[in-house]
Amino acid sequence: MSSVSPFHGLSAFPPTPADINGRVNTEALCRLLEPLCDAGVASIGLLGSTGIYAYLVREERLRAVKAAVECVQGRVPIVVGVGALRTDHAIDLARDAKTAGADALLLAPVSYTPLTQEEAYQHFLAITKAAALPLCIYNNPGTTHFTFSRDLLQRLSDIETIRAVKMPLPADGDVRGELAALREKTGLAIGYSGDWGAAEALLSGADAWYSVIAGLLPRTALALTKAAIAGDGNETRRLDGLLEPLWKLFKEFGSIRVVYTLVEHLLLAEAALPRPLLPLGPTERQLVLELAEPLTALEHQSLL
């Protein structure tokens, strides 16, 4: 396992190529991971939301982790999503990930019946006791329908292996204010998802960008991340401007539909959305490919 911290800098979240029955194409997955390693991302977020973790059975999730660990060979830390409705199922997934060689865990409080703050705390506590790997809290109320209070994040930060939190963009846009409040209460590394707000989040002092687009365009995303960490606002916003057409598509169609359209095109391999999700129609698909073409060309240039 890698000794590099996976919770600072750019964490790239690739899609998980699978067929319509949820069988993971491990060869195609490795083809996605190689450019992430070559680019030098800080970590790989395997089986995140874009990695369709919630739609894959335990056996397929384990196959994906084993294949990723074998492919990456310790070059980049692998953070594995282990969210599940039941605590015992999440424990099984966390143990699977640890046994397979994952470097860290990403845990979302997946729910059907809404969870209380105490239920979420006990869920996290049980999983950290079962698999002692560094863990990132996955705060994603848009999919889990659970919102962490700052008091809960403070309690969780007292658990030794919980090291980071992956936050959604704040509704009021005040990233600096949120960062200050969270740092006052916790010692967690604080990163953000929501690719269209990543530039400002990083410029505001966020520790990490948990990025969907970095799963396909790692070099471009990494250039943006490095510019922001260096405090170069002009270069950060220039690169963000190049990606703006994709941000608009993400907001209109959902990032997962856009990314799976692109991955099938780029890999020439099946990457089916799990039903009931449906692929984009022909007109929307063509729009995605046309807008993404100059960005994929840029990705392969020697200099950005």
Automatic annotation (TrEMBL):
Cross-referenced InterPro entries: Aldolase_TIM (IPR013785), DapA-like (IPR002220)
Any one GO CC term of the record: cytosol
Keywords, in A-Z order: Lyase
Residue numbers annotated as active site: 138 (proton donor/acceptor), 166 (schiff-base intermediate with substrate)
SMART domains membership: DHDPS (SM01130)
Keyword Phosphoprotein among record annotations: no
Sites where the protein binds pyruvate: 50
Key word Acetylation present: no
One Gene Ontology MF term: 4-hydroxy-tetrahydrodipicolinate synthase activity
Similarity annotation: Belongs to the DapA family.
Protein name: Dihydrodipicolinate synthase/N-acetylneuraminate lyase
Species assigned in the record: Rhizobium leguminosarum bv. trifolii WSM2297
